[in-house]
């Protein structure tokens, strides 16, 4: 019996894998749809319009140096805590069953650290947590005794990074993603190791299993960090997790059902992307600072609109982004018929015959169709409509911010982050 690994025939689990690593690289590691036959649109010069914002700090040019220093310290402290978490994991792992790892190049704690550090992601969730904390009155770093409030904020920021890794790794398994942050996804790396070692069984199943366990471990450690925070933070964290899982389920089921209505796609994007990326981290930071309801309400409103802009930008980058910049394949959302707002608008705006052919219930998009559909969506105004939605959500987010009673330095950084997040190229 033979099993299929992205088009590669591999032996059944009762025999050793005969797939060459080189062949696996070609079939699993090459992003689909990355060479469109049409010019990539300029995204209406969106990224060129973004303010000069340091992605590591969220500080705009000319901003207060003290505030930029504080957020840099926060990111450094988060990295140090993540390293401490992984070191603690490794110590326990080695004590439990020494030298027990087979097939893989490294055991899970080391792999976890390799995905977390050095920081190759945007660190957007910890940034939002930090500036939510500052906006609600979080104190600056001083040379005096450590501030318990700030220590809690750092714990939440580290937990958010672990949660994000959990979500990415599991999402890549579900979507059969081939690359992430410019490297093979966790399940692809593990599958390649299986083939390289000529191990027994199915390399696809092995890779998926290792990746799922890696994500589980990240979620477990994130949850442990949050247990040492205040009750309001824990309750908000739990709600964020429920939203994330619910959104991911809706993403899977909507794709299976070929849902193409805009409002449903917006709800999916809010739950699985916008809320846990922008809105919830902001409010978590504010709750750590002991923010009153008017402040958390204002940040929640701002975060809802910016979160939607973030998710819409993800849709655009998923179809027209540069893989060398995003670190992810382009065109996968099309091939997987994802329930995105972009595809819902395409279903509405494309001529009926083309809409049915490419986006109908019985449609099957191939890699060769990707550049054609890219071109059609530009010509028929789909990109313009989605860019208009991004502009509107950004405008509403900034309006919420202008009406909120926040610490001035925090409000300024959130304004800069809103602009750079909505206009980002990765």
Name the helicity range: 55-70%
- Which structural class do you get from the secondary structure elements? mainly alpha
Catalogue the unreliable spans: 1-23, 25-52
CATH fold name:
Farnesyl Diphosphate Synthase
Strand content: under 5%
Corresponding CATH architecture: Orthogonal Bundle
Whole-number tally of structural domains: 1
**Main sheet summary:** 2 strands, antiparallel
CATH superfamily: Farnesyl Diphosphate Synthase
What's the mean pLDDT score? 83
Overall geometric form: flat
**Strand neighbour order, sheet with most strands:** 1-2
Query: What's the end-to-end separation, in Å?
Result: 42 Å
SS field, number of helical segments = 17
Q: What is the N-to-C succession of helices and strands?
A: EEHHHHHEEHHHHHHHHHHHH
Per DSSP E runs of 2 or more residues, the count of β-strands stands at 4
Region (Disordered): 1-68
GO biological process, one term: isoprenoid biosynthetic process
Cofactor: Mg(2+)
Keywords: Magnesium, Metal-binding, Transferase
What does this structure look like?
- The chain has 426 residues and is an all-alpha fold.
- The protein has a single domain (70-423), classed as Farnesyl Diphosphate Synthase (Orthogonal Bundle), CATH 1.10.600.10.
- Helices cover 65% and strands 3% of the residues.
- The chain has a two-stranded antiparallel sheet with strand order 1-2.
- β3 (179-180) and β4 form a beta hairpin.
- The radius of gyration is 22 Å and the shape is flat.
